Amino acid sequence: MTVTAPAGFEAAGVACGLKSSGAADLALIVNRGPRRAAAAVFTSNRAKANPIIWSQQVIADGEVAAIVLNSGGANCFTGAQGFQTTHATAEAVAEALAVGAGEVLVCSTGLIGEQLDRARLLAGVAAASGSLDAESGMDAARAIMTTDSVPKTAERRRDGWAIGGIAKGAGMLAPGLATMLVVITTDADLPAPALDAALRRAARVSFDRLDSDGCMSTNDQVTLMASGASGIAPDAEAFEAELTALCLDLAAQLQSDAEGASHDIRIEVVGAAREDDAVEVGRSIARNNLFKAAVFGNDPNWGRVLAAIGTTSAEFDPYDVDVSMNGVRVCTAGGPDRPRDEVDLSGRAVHLLVDLRVGDATATILTNDLTHDYVHENSAYSS
Amino acid sequence: MTVTAPAGFEAAGVACGLKSSGAADLALIVNRGPRRAAAAVFTSNRAKANPIIWSQQVIADGEVAAIVLNSGGANCFTGAQGFQTTHATAEAVAEALAVGAGEVLVCSTGLIGEQLDRARLLAGVAAASGSLDAESGMDAARAIMTTDSVPKTAERRRDGWAIGGIAKGAGMLAPGLATMLVVITTDADLPAPALDAALRRAARVSFDRLDSDGCMSTNDQVTLMASGASGIAPDAEAFEAELTALCLDLAAQLQSDAEGASHDIRIEVVGAAREDDAVEVGRSIARNNLFKAAVFGNDPNWGRVLAAIGTTSAEFDPYDVDVSMNGVRVCTAGGPDRPRDEVDLSGRAVHLLVDLRVGDATATILTNDLTHDYVHENSAYSS
Description:
L-amino peptidase D-ALA esterase/amidase; Ubiquitin-like (UB roll); about 375 residues; globular; alpha+beta; six-stranded mixed β-sheet; autocatalytic cleavage (chains A, B); homodimer; 15 strands; 2 domains; EC 2.3.1.1 (chains A, B)
C-alpha cells in the first residue's frame, strides 16, 4: 500500500512512453484531505532542475494537494522550454483534480540535458488522473524507478495513525547521487511547520548520511504530505520517532540497491569532539575511492581509512586513532594491531568502526564499495 | 640521465628485497656540490608518513646532501618502530657519505600500515652507496616505481645549466593520490629560498592541478636539489620557467600512466571571476565519479559536468555556463546546444572546456576516467 496506506491518499502509476523500455514512468499521488499540509527538503546543489525550482515555490505556503513524478528524464538544464514543461505538467494535474497549479509538486528523474516529451507527459497525467485509487501506492513506487532493481517502500502504524513512503535512487540528499526521490504520506493531523521540523530532523540523520558515491544530484527531493484523515494529532516526539524510523528504513533500502555495489558499508565514527566532526570524518571515508575499491576486493586496507581522515578538519591526533573492521581491531593508536587477514569481508555487510578518542560525539554514514559494475552502469547510463 | 643530467649529482637504484617481485626498490641520489641548497613541498594530509615527518625537519635549514627513496612500503602508521626505521635509514646514508643524518631526506611509497624490513632496507643503502655514479639516474627512476608501468623522467638544458627529474605515482600533491614522489636536480647555483619560491610556484600550476582520483596521499613529496656545479646563477624568471616546464612534463607523464585509466582528461575552466574559482570548479569535475565513468564509456554526459559545478562555491550562474567537449559545444547558457553524439571520445585525450562567463580567470586541471581497471588495480593493491 505504501503511500496509500495512510487514509486520505490516492495514487496511480502509469507508462506514458518517457522510458524507451515501455515500463511505468509517471506517478501521481493525491492528498484527499481533509488537511493538505506538507513539507519538503531539496538538493543543496546550486544547479537545480526545473521541477526543483517549481516545487520550492509550491511548498512555500505549506499546502500541497498532489505530487506528480516522472522517470525517463530529469528536465534539468533544458532551458525555458524545460521549465514550461514542468509548469504545464502541474497545470494539467491541477485541472484534472480541480485544484490550483500552485498546490502541485513536480519531481523528475533521469538523464540531464534532454527535453522531456511534453505531449507524452501530459497524456500520462491524464491517464494517471483517471486511474487514481487508494490501493495503488505500489504502482507509484514502480513508476519512479530508474536504475533501481526493486521498488523501495515502507509503512509504519501507531496509535491510530500511519506513515507510508516510497523512494527511488541510490544516494543521499544533500549532497545526493543519481536523484533520490522520496514521497512520504501520513494521515496524522499536523500543521506544515510541524511537518517541516520533523522532516528536516529525520532527513538529517537518514538520507543526509547516505553517501553512495559523493555525487550531488540536481533533482533530489523528499516530500512529506499529511491528510489529517485519521483525526489524530500525535505529539511531536512520537511523530518524529516514527518518521525517522521510516526514513532510516528507506535509506537502508536505497543503500542496499546502490548501483553496482557489492558491499553495504556502515561507517560508525565514535569518540569525536562534536557531531559535525564525526560526520565529516565518516563522509571523507565514504568518498575515498581507494578505500571503496579495497572493500570491493575484500581487502581491509585500514591505511586508506586513516589517509581519508587526515584530509578532514576534524579534531583528532593521527597517532591516537583506533580502527576496527567487522569486529577486528586492525589499528590501535595509529599503528598496526591485529593482522589484516583476520578480517572477513566476504559478506555484503561491512562495519567500519573509527574511534577518534577525543570526545563522545558519534555519527554513522552509510556507503557502498566501488565496483566494476558501478563503473559499467554509470558509463552506459545515457546510452 | 634524468637526475644525473645536471653536473654534481650521482645516483643509484638497487633491489633490496622490499618488493616481493625482486624488482629494484631503493634509490639514492647524492648532491656532490659544491652547493647543497634544497627545497621541498609535502602532502597536506594531516596523516603524514614517518619519512614525511623526518624530511620536514631535514629541509628546514635548506641544506640537503642526499635523498634516499624506497618503494615496497609507505612506512606510514607504523608507530615508533616505523619512525626509528626512517631515522636508521638516514643515519646509514649519512655514515656512508660522511655527512650528517640531518642532511638526508627520506621518502617511502607502498602499502600503509606495514613495517618495512629494516635489515633489508639498510643492506639496500649499503649496496646503493657502493654503486653511485653520475650515469645512473634512470636506475633511480626505476627503483621508485610501484604500480607505474613506465619510469617518468625529464631533462631541460639552458644557457649552460640543466634541470633533471624523476617521478613516480599517478596523482597530485595536495591532495594527492597513491604517493607521488618527485626528485628534481639542477646544477644552477641558487640559494635555498630561491629554490623554495620557484618550486612552490611551479608545483602550484603542475602537480597541484593533477587530480587523478581525489585521494590525498600520506607520503607525497617533491624535492628540488641544487649543486651549483654549473657555476651559473640564472635569473629567477628563467629558472622558474624551466622548472615549471619540467614539472608540467612530469605531471603529464603521471597522468598518462594513472592506474587503470583509459582517458586523459584536460579540464580547462575559463571565464572565472578568480583563479581559485576556476581551480575549485575544475577539481569538482575531476572528482565526480559519475562524469569520470561516463568518459570511460565515451559518453559526453555534460549534465554531470554542470551538476559537479553546482556543488562549488564559485561565482557562476548555472543558466549562463557554456560547455564544450573535444571541440563540440554541447551546452550553451545552461541548455542543450549541439547533439551529444557529435562528440567523439574514442581517443585517449579528452578536452573539456567550461566557460563560467563571469570574469577572465582560468585554470586547467588534469584527471583521468574511472574505469574497470582502476577498480581492479586498487582492489587488488595490497594482495
